[in-house]
Amino acid sequence: MEELQEIAGGSRADLTSDDKLWAALSWLPPTPLWPLLAVLALLLEDTKNRPFIRYNAILSLVTGVA
């Protein structure tokens, strides 16, 4: 469990509401915006350096492609 927390960006105390929002938006499967939002989360300056957002965006893209 600790390894997963390290990969996803550390402890829950570091998460902001923006982190949670972008992570949730990356996982909107029924919409055609799903891949666009995940890629956008990886490209925007504010979000691309946040480990939790990067983890969820990459994971949602990999899951969607597979």
User: How much helix, percentage-wise, in residues?
Assistant: 55-70%
Give the rounded overall mean pLDDT: 78
CA-based shape? globular
Question: How many domains make up the coordinates?
Answer: 1
Total number of helices: 5
Instruction: Please give the alpha-carbon distance between the first and last residues.
Output: 24 Å
Beta-strand residue percentage: under 5%
Low-confidence stretches: none
What is the succession of H and E elements? HHHHH
Major sheet attributes:
none
Content-based structural category:
mainly alpha
How would you summarize the topology of this molecule?
Blueprint: H1 2-8, H2 17-26, H3 34-43, H4 45-48, H5 51-65
Commentary on this structure:
By secondary structure, the protein is mainly α. The chain has one domain. 70% of the residues lie in helices and 0% in strands. The chain is built from five helices and no strands. It has helices spanning 2-8, 17-26, 34-43, 45-48, 51-65. It is globular and about 30 Å long. The model has no long low-confidence stretch (mean pLDDT 78).
